[in-house]
Amino acid sequence: MRAILFGGGLSLLISLLGTRVAISALSARGYGQEIRDDGPTSHHTKRGTPTMGGLVIILAAVLGYFLAKLLTGTSPSESALLLLFLFVGLGFVGFLDDFIKIVKQRSLGLRSKAKMIGQTVVALVFGALAISPALEDDNGRTPASQAVSFLRDIPSLALPSVVIILFIWGIVAGFSNGVNLTDGLDGLATGASVMVFGAYTLVNIWQRNQFCQELPGPKCYEVRDPLDLAIISAAITGACFGFLWWNAPPAAIFMGDTGSLALGGALAGLAVLTRTELLAVVLGGLFVVETLSVMLQVGFFKVTRGRRIFRMAPLHHHFEMLGWEQVTVVIRFWIITGLCVAGGLGIFYAEWVAGS
What we know:
The protein has 356 residues and is mostly helical. It has one domain. The protein has twelve helices and two strands. It has helices spanning 2-28, 54-72, 78-104, 112-130, 161-182, 188-209, 226-247, 256-273, 277-283, 285-303, 315-321, 326-355, and strands spanning 147-149, 153-158. A hairpin with a 3-residue loop joins strand 1 and strand 2. The chain starts with a helix and ends with a helix.
């Protein structure tokens, strides 16, 4: 438990102080955000706001984790290193996207195919290593399972290696793009991430307390390295919380694709490594809804040859176009995230209680 507190507290401090330094450094170099011309006109005032703040979130979370391990005298686990690989790897893809936007002075960075190739490579490597026999522990457990999971593995949905790797790729691509789409208003994705990663910290702590290796029983959890996953969850929560101080409306800095892709990847990685892939759809319900709004908008537009369901997608822009203030949209979407998190944690705990 000390390591979890160290990880969360140190990453929060590093992020809170580091973001202020990043704002000055990025502003001095002119690394400002480009704004879509077809977006809400109120966003045009944000042009030039420093971006790529996701670098601070990534750095703070990684440093927070390793400092926590150093202070407690323990070694990183394979599960933790895999999760950090996914977190940093997708952050690098996002960084390339942000950097191209700045250099080219346009609102579009990497082409969609190039971005998807980067996400795919990182996700497939993560998936292949997560189920690799080479990473089995002394009890024969790999970091990830070959079965689809809700609150724990569903044995009847065990899949061949190739299929489960593709399934993991779908989860990583879905959540990384989901957080990316949600990151369109000051503090929206950051605040939602604080709640979702905070929820995963609690899930990991509970799995650690009911760990099959130490407390075998019918309701124990067959999860590799739950304590280390809890430390990383807490570190990311702290990093986002510190960043939110500067990213809350009106934002002094944006996380950019560097942060949104990294956070989405970390969420997907936690879902896979904790055997809660379908539960993540509930906990991260806001990200799912934002993604579905874009899919529905694009699909309906193509089928009807020009008609739209929403005034603008993703969904938060629809409410802006209806006349809602940005801060109103952000706070209400935070409330929705809180309800999703409460519902997901309730389902998780209720399943354990019902079977005890």
